[in-house]
Amino acid sequence: MSENLYIPEEASKAIKYEAIIPQINSLISDEPDLISNLANIAAALKEAFGFFWVGFYLVKEDQLVLGPFQGPIACTRIAFGKGVCGTAWKEAKTQLVPDVEAFPGHIACSSASKSEIVVPVFKNEKVVMVLDVDSDQLDDFDSDDQKYLEELMGILGKTLR
């Protein structure tokens, strides 16, 4: 695949996801290196949607450890069950948070973050990492984001060796 994404301008969020997911799949399907794939996924999502922050936290022993991301510096380690990311890991389900200040135990890695979606990635039915996407706008994520990001993380999970 080329190094350029086709992102339809003036399109709905759903149309943009439908355009980039096959491109991301093509980008990662033949690449065995996990870090390269996570970096490209983060970059593609940031480029397509202009998210404030997008990246991955990988499960390492009893913590989530910062992986590839796009955006300002971030928290390096997050405990199981703590914050939005740790809750997504513990509950093994997507966390869609319209206002991070209203989320019990929210970890403020950046005071500019206002809303967040965190999607777990599974290997052998076990959470092995989470995708974390932050916005500097309140209530910026919806059911379209959840649907398509879960689909994309399902594709990623199938590539894990």
Main features:
alpha+beta; Beta-Lactamase; 4 helices; 37% helix; 25% strand
What is the topology?
Blueprint: H1 13-29, H2 34-49, E1 53-60, E2 63-70, E3 77-79, H3 83-91, E4 95-97, E5 115-123, E6 126-135, H4 143-159
Antiparallel strand pairs: 1-2, 1-6, 2-3, 4-5, 5-6
Structural account:
This protein has a single domain (13-159), classed as Beta-Lactamase, CATH 3.30.450. 37% of the residues lie in helices and 25% in strands. The chain contains four helices and six strands; from the N terminus they run H-H-E-E-E-H-E-E-E-H. It has helices at 13-29, 34-49, 83-91, 143-159, and strands spanning 53-60, 63-70, 77-79, 95-97, 115-123, 126-135.
Question: What's the gist of this structure?
Answer:
This protein is α+β, with helices and mostly antiparallel strands and 161 residues long.
CATH class bucket:
Alpha Beta
Number of strands: 6
First-to-last CA distance: 21 Å
Sheet with the most strands: spatial strand order: 3-2-1-6-5-4
CATH homologous superfamily (4th level) name: GAF domain
Instruction: Domain count, please report it.
Output: 1
The CATH architecture: 2-Layer Sandwich
